[in-house]
Recover the amino acids of this structure.
């Protein structure tokens, strides 16, 4: 059965984000919705000797209060070099730094000249998925439905119609959506709703710098565990979903 997830793009997200993609035949970047400041769209967490540290992508702020995510432009074209240097300094003692850091370096180099936040996030996510062996088809929401039509829809209605347009039989959602998502609207079109279960990502793995932090960027997992172990965690298909 064809499963789809529809999520806003995020900056170098945590391993649970990639585990959700790995469960799907189609993944839809939901970037026509309103940009939110100080959110996962522009930033993520790494660990340093001083504790957790936010890496934030500088974006143009003026006039963007109601702007969609996919219209947000990068403010400083050299931003990625500072992020890469911060990662190198923070993780040079990590067990798999020598073998995994070249992958991280190539990841940043692939998005170095991209002008918008969506392009950066989507480029990093798709590149990492390829390295992790995730074979989902990637689409943007505007590839499936007109932007203006989506803007007029209710939240669940928009997800239902995007799922139908992606030819999905199962919609995979994060647990936070249980407060508003109407499963009956999916069922009416013959689709099921499944809920992502993130509890297994609370299990600690060896990290540099102090107590385990579960919600850090996948960069942390790669540099501490290496690509093979990170891939094994992300592709744990039998443990990731509760119907």
């Amino acid at each position: 059965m064809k499963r789809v997830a529809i999520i806003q793009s995020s900056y170098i997200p945590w391993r649970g984000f990639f585990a959700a993609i790995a469960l799907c035949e189609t993944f839809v970047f939901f970037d026509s919705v309103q940009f939110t400041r100080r959110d996962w769209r522009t930033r993520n967490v790494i660990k340093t000797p001083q504790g957790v540290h936010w890496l934030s992508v500088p974006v143009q702020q003026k006039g963007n209060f109601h702007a969609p995510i996919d219209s947000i432009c990068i403010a400083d074209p050299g931003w990625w070099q500072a992020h890469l240097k911060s990662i190198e300094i923070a993780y040079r003692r990590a067990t798999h730094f020598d073998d995994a850091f070249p992958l991280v370096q190539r990841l940043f180099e692939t998005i170095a000249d991209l002008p918008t936040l969506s392009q950066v996030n989507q480029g990093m996510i798709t590149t990492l998925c390829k390295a992790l062996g995730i074979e989902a088809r990637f689409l943007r929401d505007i590839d499936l439905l007109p932007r203006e039509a989506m803007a007029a829809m209710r939240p669940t209605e928009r997800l239902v119609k995007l799922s139908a347009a992606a030819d999905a039989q199962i919609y995979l959602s994060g647990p936070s959506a249980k407060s508003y998502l109407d499963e009956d609207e999916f069922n009416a079109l013959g689709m099921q709703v499944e809920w992502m279960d993130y509890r297994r990502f609370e299990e600690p793995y060896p990290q540099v710098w102090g107590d385990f932090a579960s919600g850090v960027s996948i960069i942390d997992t790669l540099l501490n565990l290496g690509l093979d172990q990170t891939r094994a965690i992300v592709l744990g298909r039998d443990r990731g979903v509760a119907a």
